[in-house]
Specification:
Length: 311
């Protein structure tokens, strides 16, 4: 599989997604910054440190937290595992790992997310699978360009995001083959599928406004609902996101060093934690030994931080 398009340019070239989506009739809502119940500040505590640049995380449901550990040089990264007792191991060695997701007995992760690959115009990105029963690692899809986020839809399709290069639209992968752009939204980063709503949520990174797009997967081609978070987009640095059991969307703002909660029903948003520089991804605890009421956040500083609501 090969995705066409020149991506050697800077990620900052992708600054037009809001206008592009609006042109096809998207519904836009500016997030209401008014305080709402449970908005915090949440208590924070570092539960792991000493990693390189952590890009993503996912719980494997069997006591482990999987981490995408990147090298600043773009080579020599890995998928790490840490259990609730602190025991660490390495599941796969790979260059430029991005987001991780777990489905049943398989952990999927993207790789090839590195500035050297972007500057060289390489289409060396992949979707990979780890069999959590046997530890076997395989490549599911190849030929991607700087893949960042990944979501798995109910029909087995993957949606892959990218926020680096000249073409930073989401890609649809069907039957392990590139099936074209999923939507016109650009500068895409975090992506999460909400099973209860059958909605796909996507964040943008370098747009002038930080946007959270909500797609109805039962209406292919329909314009998304757009939520705009307060602040200047590049200074927020919208990164990965997750949907909690409460139906709220939680977003890591990397450059801004904040975790923001968005209510997609009302558009209200609030900061639940700040002073968390270079936060990259968030996920609620799952599996033996992990606090299911707590949100866990990774950072480019090599830390995993636990966030607990104060009310």
């Amino acid at each position: 599989m090969r995705i066409r398009g020149n991506v050697a340019g800077s990620a900052f070239a992708a600054l037009s997604s809001v206008a592009l989506i609006a042109a096809v009739g998207a519904t836009t809502a500016t997030a209401d910054p008014s305080p709402v119940a449970g908005c915090g500040p949440w208590r924070t505590s570092v539960v792991a440190s000493g990693y390189n640049m952590l890009e993503g995380l996912a719980f494997d449901g069997r006591g482990g937290l999987l981490l995408s550990d990147q090298s600043a040089s773009g080579t020599g990264g890995a998928i790490r595992r840490i259990d609730a007792g602190g025991a660490r191991s390495t599941l796969a060695t790979v260059d430029g790992p991005g987001a991780v997701l777990v489905s049943n007995n398989t952990a999927y992760f993207v790789a090839g997310l590195s500035m050297p690959s972007v500057l060289a115009g390489q289409a060396n990105g992949t979707i990979n699978a780890i069999d959590l029963d046997t530890g076997a690692v395989s490549t599911t899809v190849s030929g991607l360009r700087a893949p960042n986020g990944i979501a798995l839809l109910p029909n087995g399709d993957f949606v892959v995001t990218s926020d680096m290069g000249s073409d930073t639209r989401m890609s649809l992968v069907r039957n392990n083959v590139y099936a074209g752009p999923f939507a016109a939204l650009t500068s895409t980063n975090g992506v999460a599928y909400d099973q209860s709503r059958r909605r796909l949520f996507v964040s943008t990174t370098f747009d002038p406004a930080t946007t959270i797009a909500m797609f109805d997967i039962d209406r292919p081609g329909a314009a998304p609902t757009l939520f705009t978070l307060p602040g200047f987009g590049p200074l927020n640095g919208g990164d990965d996101l997750t949907v909690g059991s409460d139906g709220m969307v939680y977003v890591a703002l990397s450059t801004g060093g904040r975790i923001v909660r968005l209510d997609p029903g009302t558009g209200a948003s609030c900061t639940i934690a700040d002073n968390l520089p270079l936060s990259t991804a968030v996920e609620f605890g799952s599996g033996p030994g992990w606090d299911q009421a707590a949100l866990y956040a990774t950072s480019y500083l090599g830390t995993v931080t636990k966030l607990n609501p104060t009310s």
